[in-house]
C-alpha cells in the first residue's frame, strides 16, 4: 500500500490528530464540523493509504494503537508547523496590523491564556495574536528558532539562553475513575506505590511528564514504564473515565470533572507535584508587544 499522502489527506490527518487528542472520533468529527460517518470513512481511508491501523474504536471512545500513538506525535508537530505557517501568512496579508506570535503548552493554552488574550485584544484590537499549541519542548524550540515571540511552558528545566518569568503556579493531581481501588484508601497514596504503578502519561517532552519524573527523582524514586502514552490531556481524561488506569494532570485541567464527580482525586504522600507556569522569550529579540502582553498577565 502506498504511503504517499496527497493534499486531500490533510483534513484526514487533522481528524486523526483530533481523535487522539480528544479521545473520541465523534468529538473529532464535531471539531471538524463533519458527520461521524464521513469522519469514519476519512479515517479508514487514511489508514488504507498508510497501511497502518491508527485507532481502535470502542463503545467508550477511540484510542490510538501503539503505531497510531507514535504517528500522532508526528502529526501534531506537522499540523502545528502548518498552523504556524498559515498564521504567519495571514499576518503578512494584514497590512498595517502588528503581530504577536505565541507558542504555548497545552495547559497554558487551554486554561491560562484565553482570558489573557481576550483582555489584550480588548485594549489592542489592531494587534494580531496567533497561538500555536505544542508540548513544552516544542514551545522552547519555537522561541529559540524565532518562530514565536513569546512562549509559555510548564517544564521545570532551566533554559539559560531565554529570559523567563513565572506567571502562575499549578500542581499535578492523580485522578482515577470512580470505583478505582485507590478511591477506597483511608490514607494518602504512598509515593512508592504511585511511582511503581504503570500510569497513563503524556509524552516524554511534555512539561507534565517532566514535572512528574523530576518529582520522583527528588524523592529517590524511579517511575514505572507507562501503561500508555497520549499526546493530550483530554485524551488522558477520556481514558481514565473509561477505566483504563490512573493519570497525573494539571489541577486546572480537571477542576470541572472533580466537581462533577466524573473523576476522583487521589491524595499522594511524599511527592511534591507543584510547578510553575512560565513565560519565556529571547531577550535580544523582545519587542514592545511582548512586554505589553506580559503586562496583561499581571492585570
CATH homologous superfamily name of the largest domain?
A: Periplasmic binding protein-like II
Tell me the β content: 15-25%
What distance lies between the first and last C-alpha atoms, to the nearest angstrom? 56 Å
Helical residue percent band: 40-55%
- The overall pLDDT, averaged over residues, is 89
Question: Which key features would you list for this structure?
Answer:
299 residues; alpha/beta; Arc Repressor Mutant, subunit A; D-Maltodextrin-Binding Protein, domain 2; seven-stranded mixed sheet; 11 helices; globular; transcription
Report on this model:
It holds the Pfam family LysR_substrate. InterPro entries: LysR_HTH_N, LysR_subst-bd, WH-like_DNA-bd_sf, WH_DNA-bd_sf. The protein is of the alpha/beta class and 299 residues long. It folds into 3 domains: 7-65, Winged helix-like DNA-binding domain superfamily/Winged helix DNA-binding domain (Arc Repressor Mutant, subunit A); 76-168 and 277-298, D-Maltodextrin-Binding Protein, domain 2 (3-Layer(aba) Sandwich); 169-275, D-Maltodextrin-Binding Protein, domain 2 (3-Layer(aba) Sandwich). It has helices spanning 10-22, 25-32, 36-50, 66-93, 106-123, 136-144, 191-195, 207-218, 233-241, 251-260, 288-298; strands at 55-58, 61-64, 98-104, 127-133, 150-153, 163-176, 189-190, 200-202, 228-230, 247-250, 264-266, 268-269, 274-281. The strands form 4 sheets. Strands 3, 4, 5, 6, 10, 11 and 13 form a 7-stranded mixed β-sheet that branches. It has a two-stranded antiparallel ribbon with strand order 1-2. Strands 7-12 form a two-stranded parallel ribbon. Helix 1 packs across helix 3. The protein is globular, with a radius of gyration of 20 Å.
